[in-house]
Amino acid sequence: MLNNLEDTLVFRVADTENAVRDTLQGVYSALVEKGYDPVNQLVGYLISGDPTYITSHKDARGRIAHLQRDDIVEYLLRYYLHNQKMD
Predict the structure, then answer these.
(1) What's the CA gap between 23 and 61, in Å, rounded?
(2) Residues with Cβ < 8 Å from 30, sequence gap 6 or more?
């Protein structure tokens, strides 16, 4: 709660970013181990929200379900833009 309407709250995304990164790495690994194309499966999940696109191997489905899909998309977009040379 703000004591003064002039104060600004600071939102820190580091913890969310770390959770998304770690989860995506684990889900990627589990999908590869089970013989799935991880990009296709993750896209299917992100577009539809259907968790059955993600294998339950190594609790990948359970782990990804703890994240908001918009947080995953935001992380991926930030990562992509950060690693591109923008003209």
Answers:
(1) 10
(2) 54, 55, 57, 58, 60
Picking from 39, 79, 46, 78, the residue whose alpha carbon sits closest to that of residue 65 is: 46
* pTM of structure: 0.79
Is the separation of the CB atoms in 31 and 55 below 8 Å? yes
Which phi and psi angles does 34 have, rounded to 5°?
A: -90, 0
User: What is the percent of the chain with per-residue pLDDT over 90, rounded to a whole number?
Assistant: 76
For the record, the structure tokens of 30 come out as 């589990």
Residue 11 has which token pair?
A: 């939102």
Nearest-angstrom CA–CA distance, 80 and 28 = 17
